[in-house]
Write a structure and sequence with these properties.
The chain is of the alpha/beta class. The protein folds into 2 domains: 167 residues, D-Maltodextrin-Binding Protein, domain 2; 99 residues, Periplasmic binding protein-like II (D-Maltodextrin-Binding Protein, domain 2, 3-Layer(aba) Sandwich). Helix content is 44%, strand content 19%. It has a 6-stranded mixed beta sheet with strand order 2-1-3-10-4-11, sandwiched between helices. Strands 8-5-9 form a 3-stranded antiparallel beta sheet. The protein has a two-stranded parallel ribbon with strand order 6-7. Helix 2 links the parallel strand 1 and strand 2. The longest helix is centred in the C-terminal third of the chain and has 21 residues.
Length: 322
C-alpha cells in the first residue's frame, strides 16, 4: 500500500510539472480584464476580441471591467495573477507607457510584470471644437492663440491622460500657450466642448466621429500619420505644417510574466488571425482605428519605445496625475 501511495504521489507531481501543451489550452473560461468603464474604446475592442477568441478557441473569453487609477488597478490585478493564460489584460498606451511618468507609487512595473502578446490597433485622436466655434480651421486656432496667449482653453479626461499629453505635445510644436481644463473623464470634457464652455480638445476618433457627423462638433485635424477613413476630409496635423506629429493611443493584450510559451504561441496566433481577417479590419476601421498584426516580440520593443515617447512628453510638460 505504501509503495502504491508513493507511486501515486510521483505520478501526480509529474503531471503537475509536465510542460503545458498548446492543445491543453484553454480548458476553462478566460478572463480579459479592462481598466476602463464599459463603452470606452479599449472596452469595445476587448469585447469584440473576446467574442472572436471564443469562436476560435472553443472556450468562453469574457471581459471584466476594473476601472481606476488610469487603468492602473486592472494592470496591478493582472500583474499579480497566475501566469497560466486564464487572466489577460486588454490595455492601452496609458497604463503601459504613460502611468509610470504621472502616478506616484505604481504597484506594477510593465517590463517586470507583463508578457506582451499582441498589439491590436492604434486609435488616432482628432482635434475638435464646437460647431459654432470662432476657429474655422486649426491655423485660425493657432493664429489666435499666438496673439492671445493663455486665452484659449482645452479640455481633457484628466491630468496625465493621453489626450492631455497629446495637447501638450501640440502646444510645444505649435509654439502656443493654451490653458488646460482637466475633467474626471472624457465624456464630461466633450460635453463642455459641444456647449462651447471649453474651446478645443483632442479625442479618440471612435468617440468624436458620431458627434462630428451629427453636427455637434467640428473637426480641425487628426493627430496621425495619415487621414482617417471615417473622416476623409479632415487633414492631419502634419499636413497643416507640423510633420510627423502623432497622437495615437493604441490597444493591445498582455499577460502576467511567466506565461508558458505554448499558451503565448496559441494566443498570438489566434489574435493575429483575428486582426488579419477582413471582417475585423472592416469593423475596427469603422471606429477610426488602424488594425495591427504586431506579435509579442515586436510588441515588446514597441512598448519600450512608447514608454520613452510618452515619458518625454510628460516630463517636458511637468505632468502629474491628480
Amino acid at each position: 500500500m505504501k509503495k502504491f501511495k508513493a507511486l501515486a504521489v510521483v505520478s501526480l507531481l509529474m503531471a503537475v510539472s509536465a510542460p503545458l501543451k498548446a492543445s491543453d489550452y484553454p480548458s476553462k473560461p478566460v478572463r480579459i480584464v479592462v481598466g476602463f468603464p464599459p463603452g470606452q474604446t479599449t472596452d469595445i475592442i476587448a469585447r469584440k476580441l473576446a467574442q472572436r477568441l471564443t469562436n476560435t478557441l472553443g472556450q468562453s473569453f469574457y471581459v471584466e471591467n476594473r476601472p481606476g487609477v488610469g487603468a492602473g488597478l486592472a494592470a496591478e490585478l493582472v500583474a499579480r495573477a497566475e501566469p497560466d493564460g486564464y487572466t489577460l489584460l486588454a490595455t492601452s498606451s496609458g497604463p503601459m507607457a504613460v502611468n509610470r511618468w504621472v502616478y506616484n507609487n505604481l504597484k506594477y512595473d510593465v517590463k517586470r510584470d507583463f508578457k506582451p502578446i499582441a498589439l491590436i490597433g492604434t486609435f488616432p485622436l482628432v482635434l475638435v471644437t464646437s460647431r459654432g466655434s470662432r476657429f474655422p480651421t486649426m491655423k485660425d486656432l493657432i493664429a489666435y492663440a499666438k496673439s492671445h496667449p493663455g486665452r484659449i482653453n482645452y479640455g481633457s479626461g484628466g491630468n496625465g491622460v493621453t489626450n492631455h499629453l497629446v495637447m501638450e505635445m501640440f502646444k510645444e510644436r505649435a509654439g502656443v500657450d493654451l490653458t488646460h481644463v482637466p475633467y474626471k473623464g472624457g465624456v464630461a470634457a466633450m460635453t463642455d466642448v459641444i456647449a462651447g464652455q471649453v474651446d478645443v480638445m483632442f479625442e479618440v476618433v471612435s468617440i468624436a466621429e458620431p458627434l462630428i457627423r451629427q453636427g455637434k462638433l467640428k473637426a480641425l485635424a487628426v493627430a496621425s500619420d495619415k487621414r482617417v477613413s471615417t473622416l476623409p476630409d479632415v487633414p492631419t496635423v502634419g499636413e497643416l505644417g507640423y510633420p510627423n506629429f502623432r497622437g495615437d493611443p493604441w490597444v493591445g493584450v498582455v499577460a502576467p510574466k511567466g506565461l508558458p510559451p505554448p499558451v503565448l504561441a496559441k494566443l498570438t496566433a489566434a489574435i493575429d488571425g483575428t486582426v488579419k481577417s477582413p471582417e475585423w479590419q472592416k469593423e475596427v476601421a469603422l471606429l477610426g482605428a488602424t488594425p495591427s498584426t504586431m506579435g509579442h516580440a515586436e510588441f515588446s520593443d514597441f512598448i519600450q519605445a512608447e514608454i520613452v515617447r510618452w515619458g518625454d512628453a510628460a516630463k517636458r510638460a511637468n505632468v502629474r496625475a491628480d
